[in-house]
Design brief:
The structure holds four protein chains of four kinds. Chain A is mostly helical. Helices cover about 75% and strands about 0% of the residues of chain A. Chain A is built from 19 helices and two strands. In chain A, β1 and β2 form a beta hairpin. In chain A, α1 packs antiparallel against α2 and α13 crosses α19. The radius of gyration of chain A is 21 Å and the shape is globular. The two termini of chain A are about 30 Å apart. By secondary structure, chain B is mainly alpha-helical. Chain B has one domain. In chain B, strands 1-2 form a two-stranded antiparallel sheet. Chain B is globular. By secondary structure, chain C is mainly alpha-helical. In chain C, α2 packs antiparallel against α3. The radius of gyration of chain C is 17 Å and the shape is elongated. Chain D contains 28 helices and two strands. The chains are: A mainly alpha, B mainly alpha, C mainly alpha, D mainly alpha. Chains B and D meet through α8, α13, α15, α18 and α19 of B and β1, α6, α7 and α27 of D. Chain A: GO terms for molecular function: NADH dehydrogenase (quinone) (non-electrogenic) activity; NADH dehydrogenase (ubiquinone) activity; quinone binding. Chain A: InterPro entries: NADH-Q_OxRdtase_suN/2, ND/Mrp_TM. Chain A: Belongs to the complex I subunit 2 family. Chain A: It catalyses: a quinone + NADH + 5 H(+)(in) = a quinol + NAD(+) + 4 H(+)(out).
Amino acid sequence: MMKWTLFTPELFYVAMAAVFFVGSLQRRVDSRRLYRWAVVLAGVGLAVTVACTRLEGFLFFDSYKVDLFSQFFKVLIALGTFFVVLVCSELYGIDPRKHAEFYFLLSVCTLAMMMLVSAVELLTIYIALELSSYSLYLMVPMRHRADAYVESGVKYFMVGATASAMMIFGLSYLFGMTHTTYVAEIVRVLPHLLHQPAVLVGLVLTLAGFFFKQALFPFHVWAPDVYQGAANQVTTYIATASKMAAAAMVIRFVALTTGHSETLIQLLMVLSVLSMTFGNLVAIIQKDIKRLLAYSSIAHAGYMLVGILCMTQRGYAGAVYYAMAYLIMNFACFMVIIKVADDGHNLQIKELAGLHKRSPLLAMTLMLALFGLAGIPPTLGFTGKFLVFAAALEKGYLLLVVIGMINATISLYYYLIVIKAAYLLEPVREYPPVRVDTWTRILSIVLVIAMIYVGIFPDRFVALSEAAVAVLP
Amino acid sequence: MLMTAMEFAQFPVLSVILFSTILALVVILLIPDDRPQLVKQVSLGFAAVGLALCLYVYFAYDTQKGGLQFVERVLWVKSLGIYYFLGVDGINVPMLLLTAVVLFTGVLTMWELERRVKEYFALTYLLVAGVYGVFMSMDLFFIFVWYDVSLFPMYPLIAIWGGTRKEYGAMKLTLYLLAGSVLILPGILYLWAVAGAHTFDLFELQRMGFDVNVQRIAFLMLYLGFGVLAGVWPFHTWSPVGHVAAPTAVSMIHAGVLMKLGAYGILRVGMTLCPDGLVYWSDLMALLATIGIVYGAFVGLAQTDLKYVIGYSSVSHMGIVGLGLATMTVDGINGAVFQMFSHGVMTALFFSAVGYIYDKTHTKMIPELGGLSKTMPKASAFFIIAAFCGIGVPCMSSFWAELLVFISAVKTYPIRGILAVSGLVVSALFMLRVVQKTFYGEKNPRWEHIPDVPLSLASPRIILVGILVFFGLFPRLILDVIQSAVIPFVNSL
Amino acid sequence: MNSLSVYLVLGAVLFSLGLFGVILRRNLIGMLISIELMLNGANLNFMAFNRFLAPEPAVGQIVTLFVMGIAAAEAAIGLSIILALFRRLHSINVEQARRLEG
Amino acid sequence: MMWLAKDPVLLAASACATLPFVSMVVILIFTRRYRSMSAAISISAIAACLLSALYLLWTLRHAPEPVQYQWAWIVSNDMIIPFGFLLDRLSLLMLTIVAVIAFLVQVYSLGYMAGDPGFSRYYAFQSLFAWAMMTMVIAPGMLQLYIFWELVGLASYLLIGFYYEKWSASQAGKKAFVMTRLGDIGFFLGIIAVLLGFGDLGILSMNEAAQAHRIAPSVVTLSALLIFCGVVGKSAQFPLLTWLPDAMEGPTPVSALLHSATMVAAGVYMMSRIFPFFAASPDAMAVTLFIGTVTMLLASTMAMVAYDIKQVWAYSTISQLGFMVMALGAGGYFAGVFHLTTHAGFKALLFLCSGIFIHEYHTNDMREIGRGGGRKLIIPMVCMTVGALALSGIFPLSGFFSKEAIMGVLAAKPNKVWLVAGLLGALMTAYYSFRLIFMILFPRQPAHHDAAHQGTGHDDHGHEAGHHGATFWAMAWPVMILAGITLVLGFFHKDLEHFLLGAGPAVHEAEFHGEGAGHGLGHYVLLFSAVSLALGGIVWAWLEFGRKGAAQEGFLRRYPKVEALFANRWYIDHAYRWLLDHLVYGGFTNLFTRNDRRVIDGAIDGICRFTVGGGRVVSFLQSGMVQYNLVLMVAGVGAVILFFVL
């Protein structure tokens, strides 16, 4: 059974899920122990995933494609999961009795997203998508002592369910028109059918499902409430790991269309511009950091799309690099948030006041991460933007790039507001000094170094992402 | 531009200069918080090293041979064709010297800083690293990277240690300047893409040459983008606000060096890559520059805040730089580069003189001051000398620059040139007005107690004055270096 | 009367009814049901396409089966979430849940 | 430095061009505290310059060709700006004048400035001036001349504003600098015009090229007129003449050195320096002549009503400069230069004498001085009278000869208007100078005068004049020397003429006419009329101010309007003030400042506000009601579908 090795990472996460399922059956388990287990398992999972990077092949009647692209993203997802687990040491956001379930859902969701990355068949995609969404649906309302945010869970569910219903309906049309559920097949015949309204509707509805996952305007509606409403760790997970999956899916799907359809490109352009502008504009007026980051994530989805819509190798590579950069920077921000709001409440911007005294290291991490998100060199965020814009200009989308840059400037404004809070404002009331344990210290130092190093020496990573997208048709 | 074995073999002095600042940054960050004095000494040491190295480069630069020297070139990002490519020619050698001098004097000027010393000097070094990087790099990607690196430390520097309306000023300045890069980055990438998307090497791109229309678009973008930082007329309003808000040494570095980055960018990137675009837009450039010269002087007449006055004088003087560039003649560009240098030194002197006065009197408002010459003759003397330099008194380095620029300007754009020349009267009027209202007149009892600037604090200002007068008396020492690069540059236009 | 279009129209109608329901109903349960309707519209399409067009007869049915299963899970999850909400707000009216905005 | 030693001429020249600068630097940096040392340094420097100037004059007196040294100061592409020395007769003469008077004045200042807190600073600035002036005088090219011309202006600014705690002083300094700068703009543009039109700024080449008509006449006229603007500014010609009276705010020695003898004469010097160039353009000459005449007359009228002793001499300086410009404009190269020479002597003399009075009586008002008993100070009184006689052109004093030369040139003009103007000027000159002399000699106590003040006046005079201390003699010696010069200088005018014209710059033919007229019968008529007019002026002054029972009220008292007009400098200053307020401050500055705040900055801030507001508006899309969000989403889908269909 050589082929099953292709499936090793997923299998591992199944096992991990199983472990925590068992754990959740115990009457009362020590959350510290759970945490240690989780860290170990997630770490091993990351190792396993990395080990399987070079595998290639098809599974399940070719509905499941394992290649460098998918494995690369699986590594990113595993990394994200590992990060999230690392910052779960004080999981006050979640009722202590539900910790096991939380980890269980986390593993399931990771598994689902890994499958999503590899799925190349409509049904598989759909199932993987639903599986990941459901675990998220469940994780979001898990939040402990949060009457204010209880509604976010149901909102997320309603919107998500509607989106997935639309998607499956669209899929039905695609299936009907193309007589197949294999994406490759569909894409092969699609260009000839594009004139048929049914196909159009189907296609658009399907895309809607993907964009929903990636929180592109106007399918972003769930993002702000969920980011704000979910427990900090959950938000972190949604903002990092699940973003990776969405990005991978969109890239793969768009790559399959192999750049024939100009209209598709125009559509993507419009969407990316709208997302950037909307996200940045609304983010300006936010007070709650998590909500602010939600809007900024909408904007970043737009930037990522700029790379994707070039439909060139360089564009995809840029998008992949951007995704990786986004994972690291965004996680750095959330780590700081989690550590500062150690009782798991929602952090307001003004609560960061005087952070540079309370914990210089965290403050610096935050500043670098935010500058990275704003796309200021020499952080890796800048390199990401540079790559996608370069790709766009190679296709001659000058205006698009200018708009992107303007948006970057706008975004700088609200990032600077946060930095200002961390570095300039004197706290209105005395906040306790932030407790930063050794692990966090190490983690943030690692993150800082990563952000700078990858930003200054991008060559290897660019090459890596290019290799990853090389396997795309 | 491929490096010969000899060049490769030699000591990579440019990288050393560049990374000594980074090293300084790291070292400073490692010093414990309770040792501010040590921080100052360390940063002064690094500044001195940088100054020595820059002096070495300046004098080791072979004007006879000309061209690019001290070249270091390493492939950085293969797939995009980014090179780590350092080198100096006659245009940026003086700029490096300027940067080193201003940094050195700036560190000395902030010797009495108490608040958050460590962070201050660390950020300063980050800023300076960016400046060095821009001046040395011959690769568009790195030019842009260093450009941004040099910009964003301004935000904390102003917002933390600043003065009047510091947060407003900081935010305004940072966004304003980074808005400039909104046009720069697309411009650079545009050229890169048009050139076949395989190299950011300035000179390879130059050798490729671009279509006229491409050049027109790209040059406009680059000109406006860099122009924001160069204080080109309609985009100059950050300059007074920012300078007023910024602490002394930051104003020194910013007005003295950072504003030059803009002009340098126009010259190095815009004009080098888009000569035809330059030809197409030069009329506009000359017009804006002339407006800037006259306008800055007139607005300066109405200011009541010393730093506002200097800010507007900078607008006026950078207008001279722009005018020189717009003439596209050897004399004009010589003058422009020379003016960059001397204006840098001059403004640094201005701000450090004002800085001392502000530290002692805690006011920059001209009406409240007055009669300072009685209480602090030395401190006032520095400002007055700077003012003379600003007026364009001969045997001060800026006089030569203005002479060259105006001659070629009148030659190329008679009307605008004459207007610009007559701007000199107004600038004389407003400089002397400030000098008179601030330093002359009856002794002001409010400032009786203030001690005159002690030698230790005067030293940076003395250095600056010395440079101004030295290059004013022996202009060839710098002009020959400059034109060793400018003449071939103009011939290549 | 026995043509593909009829079923498609029916499916479309189901779908749109569901959509309108989701948008118009203020009652969470009602919204949930409407979503189920949408899914069923999709199912109907799959079956119809499968019946009339598809080369090999199995796919559509399989998809439908999967969707039904998923729909069931969805309903369960949805109900549980709504229940959680109800515990706190003592209401299943979506208008009660509009705190987070902007 | 060997080459220096090898060539004593060069050594001397470079001594003039460096020593004072060195002394300035040394004083400013090292010896600000040690007053006497500063003075010693400065005076020894200027003395050295004087010696080398005399040496140069002596060695090169027979040199057929001007000696020229040049080094490239800056080289920009094909433009070379040289630094060097041009030693021909004119420059040597001027160099000597400057050195002599500067030396005397610096010695004089030992007394005058004694005990002043800014003693060292004063000598530093004096050195700066000496350096700039002398280097300007021996400049071989127009650009070097312009550069040091500006530096001279700087020195003048610093010295006028020397008592900077006096507001009026700093005001006057600013005024002087800005007004001369106004003229210098023209000068600069003129130089550029030459550069563009001819390409060489060497004085000699310019002159001979202009003479040989190798420059387009239009270029010559244009550039000559522009350069003349510089003269107007520096030599306080109409309409830029009002800064000079204000410049009297400076210490009296400064007024003597800069604002009468040398600096203000720099304009005239520069003009005679490139005289052939001017001469090549009749139009320019005509303008010059006109301006000179107007200036001369205006200034004389102003002098007739002033009571401030220094003001009177200032106005007279302006009018004498007007005479010189007239002479040059009329083509009288030698006449102009000669009058420049003599005037330097006697005007310095006059100022220094007045300086002694002011120093003794602490007032500038001639009536006060008179009541104080000015006549009891014999030496200055006598010397001043000598100076006044020279000024009004009485035989056998130096002024007589130079004025005659000028009259001769004017007489040679076909249009006699100029001559008439000149004679009128001579009359007024005599009148106002002796008005001053008599007012001091024969003081009158006005009916309404508080005895107390008068008493004190007497006291401090007696007390002052009682002991003639070192300070007094330090001031007295230079005065007497100058008086001596004034007495004898006139008799050398033939030698001087040969010296200058023997091998000077090419001589304009008008010169010959002038001289031709100088030897006929007409010459004697002219001579007689001029002298008689001067005497008439003196008599007139005697009648009004001198004789017993004279009201000491000028006839102008009877025409208050006219007097007000003269006293207010023909309202020229008011015009400038108006322009400054309404055009510069009220107009451009105000406009631009508003534009800066409102339009430009307003636009920027507006954009920012708009952006934030936009965020607020857009955020309504994200409503709390989940179903509205769904609507948005569905609408998005619909839009996308439309997008595809269309």
